[in-house]
């Protein structure tokens, strides 16, 4: 009985009840009992006043005597049922005649209780009716959410009240090989133990639980690794959605993308590239997941080293092409760069799109194809690398204190590296060798002169020239001066880009 009382207190907090009884002593006694469970309580001494109360507050439950002066409880119930068939009616009567019971059934009564009613019997009846009312509300909320979620017919869906699962769809039950939610809860107790540890995926750790992490990021797409009914690890994309008009209610949806074989990409122990890195269809399928969830991606381009980043929305997917809508400035950068890097929290790595098929400035859209995952891309640069004007700098290369007589030009520079172009390669020059560069950079006030000692990090041999990347460290004074120069160079490039 204690459990029923506790549940009635919890479930009754959002339920409206109207109580009608002409006996003053009995009415006051029952009202005292009802106030313990129902904050939203109205009561009246006869059916006429009871109907006035009904019209004001439209209760969920009508608890009424039958035999009263004036209008009877039956007549009142018929009027209310004609207006609102969802109202649940409990009759209280001192009469046990069959005709009373039959009429109550015809009206659609939820319970017919004899007077005087024992308190445990009344509490049990009230508990039963609020359980039905709450279950029906849950179903209506769930059905409303189901209609709002676009193209989720094949997804696993779970609805929670706070953290307690209350409804799931058929795909969810089939995935875990159970017939009901109760059976699922008895077997697993929830999702926590089913979300397996995997690098880059969502699961519970000693620091935080999976639910808390997802709740802090509603709408975000999470990778999850889940065991199905056959103990097979499946790769599911999970999304948590809160319900704005019903506090505490949450929808979880899971999209199975196991066929893409992407779990090994996230595994840090996998040393070699998988063939899926080159598989455009895998990228397209992930893009489709993003489109169906209404999520955004980030587009990255560079204008002479200046980073141009904007959000984009997927509008259309056709064969191996996708159409994105993005900012005008991003379209300008794409036109100049010809390719584009796309990032998303859903992607294990950045996506490089090497072929731009169409840029429509009027519609602010871009269509591109030839997509693949890349381990490293320009959007992951730690330091800003900016291109320099050829006429506003000079550089001289020294190796073993001997001046290189060929032409030396700086292509780009950062706070810890620079790339130079040589028209010839010094004899025996190799990766790891040390060299010195005397660099002069023109600035607004006075030229910045740097004496740089660096090691060769990379050598690229082109058709007529050589590109060499040097890594270096500067003293704090020259470090700050170069940092200031780079900041001013950024402003120059911003103005230059806007003027295009």
What would CATH call the homologous superfamily of the largest domain? Answer: Response regulator
Low-confidence segments: 270-278
CATH fold name of the largest domain, please?
Rossmann fold
In CATH terms, what is the architecture of the largest domain?
A: 3-Layer(aba) Sandwich
Count of helix runs: 13
Output mean pLDDT: 86
Rg over CA atoms, rounded to whole Å, is 36 Å
What structural class should be given to the helix and strand makeup?
Answer: alpha+beta
CATH class wording of the largest domain:
Alpha Beta
Overall shape: elongated
Measured as a percent range, the helix fraction is 25-40%
Tally the structural domains: 4
Give, in spatial order, the strands making up the sheet with the most strands. 17-20-21-24-23-22-18-19
What kind of sheet is the major sheet? 8 strands, antiparallel
Tally of strands: 24
Strand content: 25-35%
End-to-end separation in angstroms reads: 78 Å
Characterise this structure.
This protein has helices at 2-11, 24-34, 47-57, 73-83, 98-107, 119-148, 170-176, 181-188, 210-215, 263-266, 280-292, 328-337, 476-499; strands spanning 16-20, 40-44, 61-65, 88-93, 111-114, 156-161, 164-168, 221-227, 233-242, 249-256, 296-303, 306-318, 321-326, 340-343, 350-360, 365-374, 386-387, 393-399, 402-403, 408-413, 417-422, 434-441, 448-461, 466-472. It folds into four domains: 2-137, Rossmann fold; 156-256, Beta-Lactamase (2-Layer Sandwich); 275-380, Pnp Oxidase, Chain A (Roll); 386-499, Beta Barrel (Thrombin, subunit H). The strands form four sheets. Strands 17-20-21-24-23-22-18-19 form an eight-stranded antiparallel beta sheet. The chain has a six-stranded antiparallel beta barrel with strand order 11-12-13-16-15-14. Helices cover 31% and strands 33% of the residues. The chain starts with a helix and ends with a helix. Strand 20 and strand 21 form a beta hairpin. 27% of the residues are buried. It contains 13 helices and 24 strands. With 500 residues, the protein is α+β, with helices and mostly antiparallel strands.
């Amino acid at each position: 009985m204690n459990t029923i009382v506790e549940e009635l207190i919890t479930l009754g907090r959002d339920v409206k009840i109207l109580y009608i009884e002409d006996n003053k002593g009995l009415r006051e006694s029952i009202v005292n009992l009802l106030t313990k469970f129902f904050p939203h309580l109205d009561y009246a001494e006869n059916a006429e006043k009871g109907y006035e109360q009904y019209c004001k507050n439209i209760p969920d439950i009508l608890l009424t005597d039958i035999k009263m002066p004036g209008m009877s409880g039956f007549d009142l119930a018929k009027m209310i049922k004609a207006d609102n068939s969802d109202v649940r009616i409990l009759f209280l009567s001192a009469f046990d005649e069959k005709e009373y019971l039959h009429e109550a059934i015809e009206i659609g009564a939820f319970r017919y209780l004899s007077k005087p009613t024992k308190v445990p019997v009344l509490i049990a009846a009230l508990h039963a009716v609020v359980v039905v009312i709450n279950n029906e509300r849950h179903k209506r909320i769930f059905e409303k959410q189901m209609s709002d979620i676009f193209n989720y017919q094949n997804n696993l869906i779970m609805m929670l009240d706070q953290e307690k699962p209350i409804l799931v769809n058929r795909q969810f039950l089939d995935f875990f090989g159970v017939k009901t939610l109760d059976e699922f809860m008895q077997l697993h107790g929830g999702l926590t133990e089913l979300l397996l540890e995997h690098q880059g995926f969502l699961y519970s750790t000693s620091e935080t639980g999976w639910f808390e992490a997802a709740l802090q990021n509603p709408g975000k797409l999470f990778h999850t690794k889940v065991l199905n009914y056959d103990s097979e690890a499946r790769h599911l994309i999970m999304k948590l959605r809160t319900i704005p008009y019903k506090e505490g209610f949450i929808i979880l949806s899971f999209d199975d993308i196991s066929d893409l074989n992407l779990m090994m990409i996230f595994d840090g122990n996998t040393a070699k590239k998988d063939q899926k890195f080159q598989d455009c269809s895998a990228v397209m399928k992930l893009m489709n997941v993003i489109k169906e969830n209404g999520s955004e991606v980030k587009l990255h381009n560079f204008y002479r080293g200046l980073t141009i980043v904007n959000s984009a929305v997927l509008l259309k997917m056709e064969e191996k092409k996708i159409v994105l809508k993005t900012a005008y400035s991003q379209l300008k950068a794409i036109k100049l760069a010809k390719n584009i890097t796309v990032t998303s929290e859903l992607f294990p790595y950045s996506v490089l799109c090497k072929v731009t098929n169409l840029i429509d400035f009027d519609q602010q859209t871009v269509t591109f194809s030839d997509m693949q995952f890349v381990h490293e891309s320009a959007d992951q640069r730690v330091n800003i690398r900016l291109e320099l004007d050829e006429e506003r700098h000079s550089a001289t290369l020294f190796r073993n204190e001997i001046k290189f007589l060929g032409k030396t030009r700086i292509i780009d520079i950062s706070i810890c590296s620079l790339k130079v172009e040589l028209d010839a390669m010094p004899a025996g020059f190799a990766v790891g060798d040390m060299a010195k560069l005397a660099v002069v950079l023109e600035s607004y006030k006075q030229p910045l002169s740097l004496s740089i000692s660096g090691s060769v990090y990379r050598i690229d041999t082109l058709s007529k020239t050589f590109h060499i990347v040097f890594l270096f460290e500067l003293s704090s004074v020259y470090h700050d001066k170069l940092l200031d120069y780079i900041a001013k160079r950024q402003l120059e490039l911003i103005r230059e880009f806007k003027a295009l």
